[in-house]
Amino acid sequence: MKWEEKPYHSLDYEMKQRFGEKVYRLALNGGMTCPNRDGTIGRGGCIFCSSGGSGEFAARASLSVTEQIAVQKQMIRQKRPVRKFIAYFQAYTNTYAPVPVSYTHLTLPTT
User: How far apart are CA 15 and CA 85, in angstroms?
Assistant: First the structure.
């Protein structure tokens, strides 16, 4: 079986099926490190990431999540007319933080 000529079921394919059009990813940066960089497991990163982490196109971690989403949407819309997006945390691992930090740092404002 092939999905858009690929031998695997990609996220891109699934999103097109589910939402009826291409959904563009917004790479966000939560400012966390990675166990392959901080010495917990190793140093210098891993074979999957460049020196900038796996989020080469992620927004700056100094921006709020809301600001990062706005910046990423604007950047993508300058290249093509886009209507649908999905935001995800990319640079380094971004899930590599204590739970209290993850919930306070990465929560969208309620207002």
Answer: 10
